[in-house]
Write a structure and sequence with these properties.
The protein has one domain: Ribokinase (UDP-N-acetylmuramoyl-L-alanine:D-glutamate ligase, 3-Layer(aba) Sandwich). The protein is built from 8 helices and 9 strands. It has a 6-stranded mixed beta sheet with strand order 3-2-1-4-5-6. A 3-stranded antiparallel beta sheet has the order 7-8-9. Helix 3 links the parallel strand 4 and strand 5. It is globular.
Protein backbone atom coordinates (compact mmCIF):
# COMPACT_ATOMS: atom_id res chain seq x y z
CA UNK A 1 0.00 0.00 0.00
CA UNK A 2 1.40 3.40 -0.97
CA UNK A 3 1.83 6.17 1.59
CA UNK A 4 -1.06 8.08 -0.02
CA UNK A 5 -3.48 5.14 0.19
CA UNK A 6 -6.11 5.03 2.92
CA UNK A 7 -8.41 2.26 4.07
CA UNK A 8 -11.51 2.26 1.91
CA UNK A 9 -14.97 2.26 3.44
CA UNK A 10 -16.38 -1.17 2.60
CA UNK A 11 -19.99 -2.31 2.65
CA UNK A 12 -21.34 -5.77 1.89
CA UNK A 13 -24.75 -6.57 0.47
CA UNK A 14 -26.27 -9.95 1.28
CA UNK A 15 -29.22 -10.21 -1.09
CA UNK A 16 -30.71 -11.65 -4.25
CA UNK A 17 -29.59 -10.87 -7.76
CA UNK A 18 -31.92 -8.97 -10.11
CA UNK A 19 -31.16 -9.96 -13.69
CA UNK A 20 -32.83 -6.74 -14.87
CA UNK A 21 -30.33 -4.69 -12.88
CA UNK A 22 -32.76 -2.38 -11.07
CA UNK A 23 -33.00 -3.90 -7.61
CA UNK A 24 -31.26 -6.40 -5.35
CA UNK A 25 -27.52 -6.90 -5.48
CA UNK A 26 -27.21 -4.75 -8.59
CA UNK A 27 -29.00 -1.74 -7.07
CA UNK A 28 -27.00 -2.11 -3.86
CA UNK A 29 -23.63 -2.12 -5.60
CA UNK A 30 -24.62 0.85 -7.77
CA UNK A 31 -25.65 2.76 -4.64
CA UNK A 32 -22.44 1.92 -2.80
CA UNK A 33 -20.39 3.11 -5.77
CA UNK A 34 -22.42 6.29 -6.22
CA UNK A 35 -21.81 7.17 -2.57
CA UNK A 36 -18.08 6.48 -2.62
CA UNK A 37 -18.06 3.11 -0.86
CA UNK A 38 -16.44 -0.12 -2.03
CA UNK A 39 -19.09 -2.80 -2.39
CA UNK A 40 -18.81 -6.56 -1.96
CA UNK A 41 -21.61 -9.08 -2.22
CA UNK A 42 -23.05 -12.35 -0.98
CA UNK A 43 -25.72 -13.66 -3.36
CA UNK A 44 -28.59 -15.49 -1.68
CA UNK A 45 -30.80 -16.13 -4.71
CA UNK A 46 -30.84 -15.68 -8.46
CA UNK A 47 -33.98 -14.18 -9.95
CA UNK A 48 -35.14 -14.18 -13.56
CA UNK A 49 -36.50 -10.65 -13.39
CA UNK A 50 -37.05 -7.52 -15.43
CA UNK A 51 -39.10 -4.33 -15.13
CA UNK A 52 -42.30 -6.31 -15.73
CA UNK A 53 -41.91 -8.86 -12.97
CA UNK A 54 -40.22 -11.95 -11.58
CA UNK A 55 -40.52 -15.12 -13.66
CA UNK A 56 -38.29 -17.38 -11.57
CA UNK A 57 -36.26 -17.70 -8.38
CA UNK A 58 -33.29 -20.04 -7.93
CA UNK A 59 -32.18 -20.21 -4.30
CA UNK A 60 -28.49 -20.43 -3.50
CA UNK A 61 -27.75 -23.40 -1.19
CA UNK A 62 -27.25 -22.32 2.45
CA UNK A 63 -23.77 -23.82 2.66
CA UNK A 64 -22.67 -21.76 -0.33
CA UNK A 65 -24.16 -18.62 1.20
CA UNK A 66 -22.01 -19.38 4.26
CA UNK A 67 -18.96 -19.95 2.06
CA UNK A 68 -19.43 -16.55 0.41
CA UNK A 69 -19.80 -14.85 3.80
CA UNK A 70 -16.62 -16.47 5.10
CA UNK A 71 -14.68 -15.53 1.95
CA UNK A 72 -15.71 -11.86 2.14
CA UNK A 73 -15.52 -11.21 5.87
CA UNK A 74 -12.27 -13.11 6.44
CA UNK A 75 -10.45 -10.86 3.97
CA UNK A 76 -12.18 -7.48 3.77
CA UNK A 77 -12.48 -4.94 6.58
CA UNK A 78 -16.25 -4.70 6.37
CA UNK A 79 -17.68 -1.50 7.87
CA UNK A 80 -21.39 -2.16 7.28
CA UNK A 81 -23.65 -4.94 6.06
CA UNK A 82 -26.92 -4.55 4.17
CA UNK A 83 -29.25 -7.55 4.10
CA UNK A 84 -31.96 -7.80 1.47
CA UNK A 85 -33.78 -10.73 -0.12
CA UNK A 86 -33.66 -13.97 1.84
CA UNK A 87 -36.40 -16.13 0.38
CA UNK A 88 -36.27 -19.15 2.72
CA UNK A 89 -35.68 -19.94 6.40
CA UNK A 90 -32.54 -21.95 5.55
CA UNK A 91 -30.94 -18.88 3.97
CA UNK A 92 -31.88 -16.70 6.94
CA UNK A 93 -30.27 -19.16 9.35
CA UNK A 94 -27.10 -19.31 7.26
CA UNK A 95 -26.83 -15.52 7.24
CA UNK A 96 -27.49 -15.10 10.96
CA UNK A 97 -24.84 -17.70 11.78
CA UNK A 98 -22.39 -15.97 9.43
CA UNK A 99 -22.98 -12.58 11.04
CA UNK A 100 -22.22 -14.10 14.43
CA UNK A 101 -19.07 -15.87 13.21
CA UNK A 102 -17.59 -12.63 11.95
CA UNK A 103 -18.94 -10.24 14.57
CA UNK A 104 -20.88 -8.10 12.06
CA UNK A 105 -22.57 -5.42 14.14
CA UNK A 106 -23.51 -2.60 11.75
CA UNK A 107 -26.33 -4.39 9.98
CA UNK A 108 -29.02 -2.69 7.89
CA UNK A 109 -31.89 -5.15 7.45
CA UNK A 110 -34.31 -4.54 4.58
CA UNK A 111 -37.01 -7.21 5.01
CA UNK A 112 -37.74 -7.71 1.32
CA UNK A 113 -41.02 -9.58 0.91
CA UNK A 114 -42.69 -8.43 -2.31
CA UNK A 115 -41.20 -6.94 -5.47
CA UNK A 116 -42.49 -3.67 -6.95
CA UNK A 117 -44.27 -5.80 -9.56
CA UNK A 118 -46.22 -7.59 -6.81
CA UNK A 119 -44.27 -10.86 -6.99
CA UNK A 120 -43.61 -12.56 -3.63
CA UNK A 121 -39.90 -12.83 -2.75
CA UNK A 122 -40.13 -14.26 0.79
CA UNK A 123 -41.88 -17.51 1.65
CA UNK A 124 -44.67 -16.79 4.18
CA UNK A 125 -43.35 -19.43 6.58
CA UNK A 126 -39.95 -17.67 6.65
CA UNK A 127 -41.32 -14.45 8.17
CA UNK A 128 -41.13 -15.87 11.71
CA UNK A 129 -37.52 -16.96 11.12
CA UNK A 130 -36.60 -13.51 9.84
CA UNK A 131 -38.26 -11.91 12.85
CA UNK A 132 -36.52 -14.19 15.36
CA UNK A 133 -33.08 -14.47 13.79
CA UNK A 134 -32.28 -11.17 12.09
CA UNK A 135 -34.26 -8.42 13.80
CA UNK A 136 -32.24 -8.80 17.04
CA UNK A 137 -28.99 -8.57 15.03
CA UNK A 138 -29.95 -5.39 13.14
CA UNK A 139 -28.58 -1.90 13.79
CA UNK A 140 -31.64 -0.74 11.87
CA UNK A 141 -34.52 -2.48 10.11
CA UNK A 142 -36.18 -0.65 7.19
CA UNK A 143 -39.61 -2.09 6.31
CA UNK A 144 -42.15 -0.34 4.14
CA UNK A 145 -45.74 -0.11 5.39
CA UNK A 146 -46.88 -3.57 4.19
CA UNK A 147 -43.66 -5.21 5.41
CA UNK A 148 -43.95 -3.63 8.86
CA UNK A 149 -47.47 -4.99 9.15
CA UNK A 150 -46.40 -8.45 7.96
CA UNK A 151 -43.55 -8.62 10.48
CA UNK A 152 -46.06 -7.94 13.24
CA UNK A 153 -48.91 -10.06 11.85
CA UNK A 154 -51.01 -6.90 11.46
CA UNK A 155 -52.58 -4.81 8.74
CA UNK A 156 -50.42 -1.98 7.33
CA UNK A 157 -50.55 1.28 9.28
CA UNK A 158 -53.02 3.83 7.90
CA UNK A 159 -51.71 7.00 9.53
CA UNK A 160 -48.67 8.34 11.38
CA UNK A 161 -50.02 7.39 14.79
CA UNK A 162 -50.35 3.78 13.68
CA UNK A 163 -46.88 3.92 12.09
CA UNK A 164 -45.37 5.08 15.38
CA UNK A 165 -47.18 2.34 17.29
CA UNK A 166 -45.92 -0.34 14.90
CA UNK A 167 -42.39 1.07 15.11
CA UNK A 168 -42.51 0.66 18.89
CA UNK A 169 -43.67 -2.94 18.58
CA UNK A 170 -40.96 -3.71 16.03
CA UNK A 171 -38.29 -2.13 18.24
CA UNK A 172 -39.40 -4.45 21.05
CA UNK A 173 -38.41 -7.41 18.84
CA UNK A 174 -34.74 -6.52 19.18
CA UNK A 175 -33.34 -4.16 16.52
CA UNK A 176 -31.58 -1.05 17.77
CA UNK A 177 -33.61 1.17 15.43
CA UNK A 178 -36.62 0.97 13.12
CA UNK A 179 -37.29 3.03 9.99
CA UNK A 180 -40.79 2.54 8.56
CA UNK A 181 -40.83 3.90 5.02
CA UNK A 182 -43.83 5.86 3.81
CA UNK A 183 -43.56 5.32 0.08
CA UNK A 184 -46.74 3.21 0.06
CA UNK A 185 -48.68 5.90 1.92
CA UNK A 186 -50.77 8.74 0.61
CA UNK A 187 -50.57 12.52 0.59
CA UNK A 188 -48.21 15.07 -0.94
CA UNK A 189 -45.23 13.93 1.14
CA UNK A 190 -43.49 10.61 1.63
CA UNK A 191 -42.81 10.40 5.37
CA UNK A 192 -40.32 7.91 6.78
CA UNK A 193 -40.58 7.41 10.56
CA UNK A 194 -37.45 6.53 12.52
CA UNK A 195 -37.44 5.21 16.08
CA UNK A 196 -34.07 4.83 17.76
CA UNK A 197 -32.47 5.33 21.17
CA UNK A 198 -33.14 9.08 20.88
CA UNK A 199 -36.85 8.62 20.18
CA UNK A 200 -38.85 9.42 17.05
CA UNK A 201 -37.77 11.41 14.01
CA UNK A 202 -39.51 12.03 10.70
CA UNK A 203 -37.83 12.33 7.31
CA UNK A 204 -40.01 13.99 4.70
CA UNK A 205 -39.74 14.43 0.95
CA UNK A 206 -42.24 15.42 -1.74
CA UNK A 207 -44.09 12.41 -3.14
CA UNK A 208 -42.92 12.09 -6.75
CA UNK A 209 -45.13 10.81 -9.56
CA UNK A 210 -43.12 8.30 -11.61
CA UNK A 211 -43.52 4.69 -12.67
CA UNK A 212 -39.77 4.17 -12.22
CA UNK A 213 -39.86 2.89 -8.65
CA UNK A 214 -38.10 -0.46 -9.11
CA UNK A 215 -35.47 -0.93 -6.41
CA UNK A 216 -36.39 2.02 -4.20
CA UNK A 217 -36.29 -0.01 -0.98
CA UNK A 218 -33.00 -1.67 -1.90
CA UNK A 219 -31.51 1.69 -2.79
CA UNK A 220 -32.53 3.42 0.45
CA UNK A 221 -31.27 0.65 2.71
CA UNK A 222 -27.97 0.30 0.86
CA UNK A 223 -27.52 4.09 0.96
CA UNK A 224 -27.96 3.97 4.75
CA UNK A 225 -25.38 1.18 4.92
CA UNK A 226 -22.98 3.18 2.76
CA UNK A 227 -23.24 6.24 5.00
CA UNK A 228 -22.76 4.12 8.14
CA UNK A 229 -19.72 2.52 6.50
CA UNK A 230 -18.25 6.00 6.08
CA UNK A 231 -18.71 6.66 9.79
CA UNK A 232 -21.85 8.78 9.83
CA UNK A 233 -24.26 8.66 12.76
CA UNK A 234 -27.48 6.76 12.19
CA UNK A 235 -29.68 9.83 11.86
CA UNK A 236 -27.28 11.56 9.47
CA UNK A 237 -27.05 8.33 7.48
CA UNK A 238 -30.83 8.10 7.17
CA UNK A 239 -31.11 11.77 6.17
CA UNK A 240 -28.40 11.47 3.52
CA UNK A 241 -29.92 8.25 2.17
CA UNK A 242 -33.37 9.83 1.93
CA UNK A 243 -31.93 12.77 0.00
CA UNK A 244 -30.02 10.48 -2.35
CA UNK A 245 -33.08 8.36 -3.09
CA UNK A 246 -35.29 11.43 -3.62
CA UNK A 247 -32.85 12.78 -6.21
CA UNK A 248 -32.54 9.37 -7.88
CA UNK A 249 -36.34 9.17 -8.10
CA UNK A 250 -36.67 12.74 -9.37
CA UNK A 251 -34.22 11.98 -12.19
CA UNK A 252 -35.51 8.47 -12.93
CA UNK A 253 -37.64 9.53 -15.90
CA UNK A 254 -34.45 10.50 -17.72
CA UNK A 255 -33.84 6.77 -18.14
CA UNK A 256 -35.76 4.61 -20.59
CA UNK A 257 -35.26 1.09 -19.25
CA UNK A 258 -37.69 -1.71 -20.06
CA UNK A 259 -41.47 -1.66 -20.43
CA UNK A 260 -42.62 -1.76 -16.81
CA UNK A 261 -41.47 -0.25 -13.53
CA UNK A 262 -38.04 1.11 -14.43
CA UNK A 263 -35.20 1.71 -11.97
CA UNK A 264 -34.30 4.87 -10.12
CA UNK A 265 -31.33 6.82 -11.51
CA UNK A 266 -28.49 5.72 -9.24
CA UNK A 267 -25.89 7.76 -11.12
CA UNK A 268 -27.93 10.94 -11.56
CA UNK A 269 -25.02 13.05 -10.31
CA UNK A 270 -22.59 11.74 -12.94
CA UNK A 271 -24.44 10.81 -16.11
CA UNK A 272 -25.27 13.58 -18.56
Amino acid sequence: MSEAAVQSAIAVTIAGSDSGGGAGIQADLKTFSALGVYGASVITALTAQNTLGVSGIHDVPPDFIAQQIDAVYSDLAVCATKIGMLSRSEAILAVSAGLDRHGASTVVLDPVMIAASGDRLLAPEAIATLRAELLPRARIVTPNLPEAGALLGEEPARNLDEVRAQAERLLALGPRAVLIKGGHGEGPESVDVLLDEEGFAEFRAPRLVTRNTHGTGCTLSSAIAAELAKGESLRKAVQAAKQYLSRALARSDELVIGHGHGPVHHFHAWWA
